[in-house]
Amino acid sequence: MQESLIMKDVFIYSAEGQSETIVTDIENMVRSYVEKVHFVLKELVRKSIAETQELKRFPSLQTEIATAANEALEKFRDESRKTVLRLVEMESSYLTADFFRKLNAEPEKITNKKSSTESDKNAKTDANQSPTSERLSESYLRRIGSNVNAYIAMVCDTLRNTIPKAVVYCQVREAKRSLLSNFYAQVGRREKERLSAMLDEDPQLMERRMQLVKRLELYKSARDDIDLVAWK
């Protein structure tokens, strides 16, 4: 019974607007954390592309890779943001009842050890007080506030451990696993003309190479025909 009253008081205390402010502050903090990780990953990609000497010969390819990588990082960031905000929403929507059971277990033990004389004296005093006045007493309200603050601290500790894990899983891990997977798939579906354009080749040089490839194929075909006749 006492536990249910305390749980109800937590909702009353939260309804005054303090919980909404706390939740909003936490949501803003986790959004900021996600953005910071996103910025670090973007910088790593930018530096890696800039420092790769082989890519400097192909500016168009370099741009394509940078664009694809940033698009992938944005997708990972959006998924990470959704995940961490769900964690915050989950913690703000459902109370952990066991926390309040443990929190109030010790005071109940101390109360049970009081002498019967003191209990009788308190009973006479309590008889003259209405339940409403007791609930509104300063000490009782202070206890409610203390319980709520302790619960908020516990939730913050939980989020402090789970949020970084979620961000690493959704952003860092995915960046290591599949940063350019979509880019590779797109490249595989492109036509020769678009692939050649990505390499920034001179059109005349490209045409010359194609002619040489065709001539080489003719030479190989002629050689095979000569070998076939020679062995007969």
From TrEMBL:
Compositionally biased region (Basic and acidic residues): 110-124
Gene3D superfamilies according to UniProt: Dynamin, middle domain (1.20.120.1240)
Start and end residues of each stretch annotated as Disordered: 110-136
Pfam families on file: Dynamin_M, GED
Keywords carried by this UniProt record: Motor protein
Compositional bias segments (type: Polar residues): 125-134
Stretches assigned to the GED domain: 141-232
InterPro entries reported in the protein's UniProt record: Dynamin, Dynamin_stalk, GED, GED_dom
Coiled-coil portions: none
Name this polypeptide is given: GED domain-containing protein
Lineage of the species this protein comes from: Eukaryota, Viridiplantae, Streptophyta, Embryophyta, Tracheophyta
